[in-house]
């Protein structure tokens, strides 16, 4: 009889300790109505826009902010520059190729503090089915309040991703800047710890 109880002990410990471990992990929800993912590129005619359909998640394995993982997924076909002609060109095979590669994604691989509330976030950026390492530089506000804003910028060379074409009569630079402004709210777990 004793042996039977001893074999049940690890199962009981796992059942009790697993929820406790989860409770110690901050859980955040992104409020999309306040957030944006935008891009711009220098050109002889302004090319700047946003993505109307995108999703992001911010997860942590502990209250230490450096354990965070940021995932952003934008639907390439949801590009909105305010011009139907530009949108059509950007969705096409010379640029986003939205029909064959519908998602533009960023998955962070590390969080590197660069100041009290600034971070470099190296990660894998994928567009047109081509994946490369890029770094998103972020500033975080709202420490200790339970909600905050993450603003950042990442720049990449469009030709590194096979976007070698141009638009007739428009000169386009190779450097593309992506700006994120993400609002997040802690829905459970402890506050994040920012190492100074």
From TrEMBL:
> Is Nuclease set as a keyword in this record?
no
Which superkingdom is the protein from?
Bacteria
Task: Identify the SUPFAM superfamilies for this entry.
Answer: YceI-like (SSF101874)
Q: Which residues form the signal peptide?
A: 1-23
Annotated Lipid/polyisoprenoid-binding YceI-like domain ranges read: 27-185
The record's section on InterPro entries has: Lipid/polyisoprenoid-bd_YceI, TTHA0802/YceI-like_sf
Give UniProt keywords alphabetically. Answer: Signal
Task: Kindly give the Pfam families that the UniProt entry links to this protein.
Answer: YceI
| Family annotation (PANTHER family) | PROTEIN YCEI
What is the recorded name of this protein? Polyisoprenoid-binding protein YceI
Q: Which organism is it from?
A: Edaphobacter modestus
